[in-house]
Amino acid sequence: DTGVSQDPRHKITKRGQNVTFRCDPISEHNRLYWYRQTLGQGPEFLTYFQNEAQLEKSRLLSDRFSAERPKGSFSTLEIQRTEQGDSAMYLCASSKGTGRVTEAFFGQGTRLTVV
Amino acid sequence: KNEVEQSPQNLTAQEGEFITINCSYSVGISALHWLQQHPGGGIVSLFMLSSGKKKHGRLIATINIQEKHSSLHITASHPRDSAVYICAAVYYGGSQGNLIFGKGTKLSVKP
């Protein structure tokens, strides 16, 4: 197992374009999380899946953002009509278990630059 | 407001020095994570703890639930320890995965 994998690592897009990021969690992990990190700040929670169910979405996740995990394995995060304020590092993490707190393992992130 | 506060924001040390990074939080938590982030973005989980102390190699993490405070110590620091160290809390009443992150402490260890 190679850990949590994110693709692409970097994305430059023009304002108004749509972008999609992919996250492949550790294979037996049932939980998957997306976070966003802007320069000089800690990551902020965006959304959380348990298996294929999206259990929680942050208010940060505007209507232009959508996340899916159709088969309970990989997940995609799509941003429509990108804005310059969407420029950030998008981090994915996964964990295993059903308890209240389980240790999360993070991917390398996708750095988005909107020009 | 930031519910998880870290100090210092930046820290420069000489190789071999003992380093302490502090994290305080405002309400009760279920667990606290210490994370390491290298340039380029990838985050590595160092510790998850809800009480007491954990040790892994030269890294030690402690937590005082009553004082709502945690520390990360690095003994015999090395330039490869240079990174951003982030603490993240899971609050009582918060949901799984909804970690509240500090802004990070940027550590630079000089040879």
Q: Care to describe what's here?
A:
With 115 residues, chain A is mainly β. In chain A, 0% of the residues lie in helices and 49% in strands. In chain B, strands 2, 4, 5, 9, 10 and 11 form a six-stranded mixed beta sheet that branches. A five-stranded antiparallel beta sheet of chain B has the order 1-3-8-7-6, with no helix packed on it. Chain B has strands spanning 4-7, 10-14, 19-25, 29-37, 43-49, 52-56, 59-64, 69-74, 83-91, 100-101, 105-110. With 111 residues, chain B is mainly beta. Classes of the chains: A mainly beta (115), B mainly beta (111). At the A-B interface, strand 4, strand 5, strand 9 and strand 10 of A face strand 4, strand 5, strand 9 and strand 10 of B.
| Rg over CA atoms of chain A | 13 Å
Roughly what is the average pLDDT of chain B, rounded to an integer? 90
Helical content of chain B (DSSP H or I, runs of 4+):
under 10%
Task: Report the helical percentage of chain A.
Answer: under 10%
Structural class of chain B: mainly beta
Number of helices of chain A: 0
Oligomer: heterodimer
What percentage of amino acids of chain B are in beta strands?
A: over 45%
Q: Could you tell me the mean pLDDT of chain A?
A: 91
- Please trace the helix and strand order of chain B, writing H or E for each element: EEEEEEEEEEE
Low-confidence stretches of chain A are none
Q: Work out the largest interface and the residue count of each chain.
A: A-B, 30 and 26 residues
Helix count of chain B equals 0
Query: What gap, in angstroms, lies between the N and C termini of chain A?
Result: 36 Å
Task: Report, as a whole number of angstroms, the end-to-end distance of chain B.
Answer: 37 Å
Tell me the Rg of chain B in angstroms. Answer: 13 Å
